[in-house]
Structures are given as structure tokens and as C-alpha cells.
Amino acid sequence: MKRIAVLSSGGDAPGMNAAIRAVVRTAIYHNIKVYGINKGYEGLIKGDVKQLSKSDVANIIHKGGTILKTARSENFKTKQGRKEAFAFMEAFEIDGLVVIGGDGTYTGAMKLSEEHPIKVVGLPGTIDNDIFGTDYTIGFDTAINTAVEAVDKIRDTADSHSRLFFIEVMGRHSGYIALYTGIGSGSSYIFLPEQENSLEEFTELLEKSNRRNKLFNLVIVAEGNTSGGAQELSKLVKEKLGEDIDIRNAVIGHLQRGGSPTAADRILSSRLGYHAVNALIEGQSNVAIGIVDKKVVYTPFAEAINNKKLPDENMITMAQILAL
Ligand code: F6P
Known about the structure:
The longest helix is centred in the middle third of the chain and has 22 residues, at 140-161.
């Protein structure tokens, strides 16, 4: 291994910079040249690249976003796009690639390494935590800390006005953020995409627990749940329970994707970046690097993509018991 490249792709996640820093510094330690690719796979196709030194990655461990920028590339989904990307890497004599992103990023990486003689490893970078082959993804811890902090603030108003609040958190296909935010903020109910949540059940619970008008309620809604978003749910519940119930909704949105990564995310990202380079040196390819039960594991991309990582059933039950 003489030259490697690193890129971030898909949605940004806090901790990506810490991972890039770890990749660059570990590679340089092993006398490997590192190239940073701008804007994910799009930059790989265009050859938008810059050699990175140790000092280029100084002062970034605490920064959210990604210094390499990111994009969701349509071109890279085509064989031709991947061919052009490989041609660029061949010209630059790049023999290893580290990609940081979610399952879309892994799919691109898998195809690239199957179609062309290039070693590719992936790091799980998404706030959603829905990647198989790792307990936690880069950015998840920061996202739930941001969400819990936001819910704590909303709690003040909910409590003062005895209001029911529907608070929507991110997670298009996954309830991890909602579940962990719900548990961490002591919410009354959580709408998850992985469960058949019924409005009936929720309103019955409210009535049963006698909290309807007396106390406040914080309800966490995962963006991807099937019953509707926070706005829709607050409308439906108002229609069902009558005008006298005081309901508001809030969407935390992209606030969850930004900000300085937590210590846990910086440490996870540093470990993953370090092990990504070690994996390439060992000759690994077509695998995602993760940490499961404190141990570093390599999961073939195909396995990481095809397996769903669902939130733990026991935690869902616990959240229900601790709620209303
Ligand atoms: O996958 C990360 C994520 O933040 C999801 O939780 C969310 O649904 C999506 O990205 C939003 O994507 P965009 O920033 O492109 O609107």
C-alpha cells in the first residue's frame, strides 16, 4: 500500500472529521500517501483531489460536518461512473480507498471493488445508527445528545402549560434516534418505524394513565414512522380528543446532524479510522469496519447492506414500561 484516498459520502455526520484525521495520520505513520477526495463519489469521478498532510487534519477533531464535503452521487450509481472513478485512481496510482457513509455509500463501494482491482473499506458514518456490523455509527451519539437537549428545553414549556408535545426526530427508515431520545428524555410515548404504532393505542394510553389534561406529555416521533409526522399526529390527536387538549409540535430536523461531536463519537471515529488503514495494510477489501461488543470487526459490504440492524426489542419494552 503506497497511496490511499479517503472520502465522505451521503449525509454528513458529526465525527466524520475525526475519522478523516485518524485515516490520514495512521496512513502517514505507515509512510502511505493520503489523498482527500472532495464531495464524495462525485469528486472521485472528477478527480477532485488533494494530498493531505498531518497538519491538514489538525484542529478538526472537534468540528461537525466534513472537511472533505459530501454528496449523494447519481453518476456513481452507473457502471460508467465507477469506471471513470477507477480510471482516475489508476492514474494517481491509488491502491486503497476508505469511504465514510451509510448503506448507499457501502453499495457504491462494494460495486467499485467488485468491478475493478481496487481495495475498498468502509466506515459507518450516519446519525441514523442503522448500519449492520457495528454497535454504533459515527454521529449517532452526538445526534441523540442534541435531540435530548432540545427535548429538555421543550419540556419546560410543556410542563409550564400542561401541554402535549409531538417532537419529531430524524431517522427516515430507522427508529434508533427516536428510541434513544425517548428513553434519554423520559418521554411518554415513542412512534417508531419498526413498530405498528396505532393512534388508538396512544390515545387509550393517555386516557388510562389519566394524563390527558392534567400533566404534560412529551411524545417522540421518528421521521419515518407510519402514523405520520409530528404535525400530522398533533392534528389527528386533536381531532380525536377534542379542542380542549392543548397540543403543539416541533421538528428538530437538521440541528441533529450538526455541531461538535461528543467525546464518544470522537473516540469511535478515531478507532474506526485507525483500523480502516490497518485493514487496508492487511490486504482487506470489500468490507466495512465496525465495533461490536468493544471488538473491531470486518463485515463484508454485502452482509452489511443486506442485513437490517433493528433497535433492541428489550429496549423498546423498557421504554414503554418507563413511560406513561
Ligand atoms: O440518513 C441521515 C438523515 O439525516 C436521515 O435521518 C434523514 O431522513 C435524512 O438524512 C435527511 O437527508 P437530507 O439532509 O438529504 O434531507
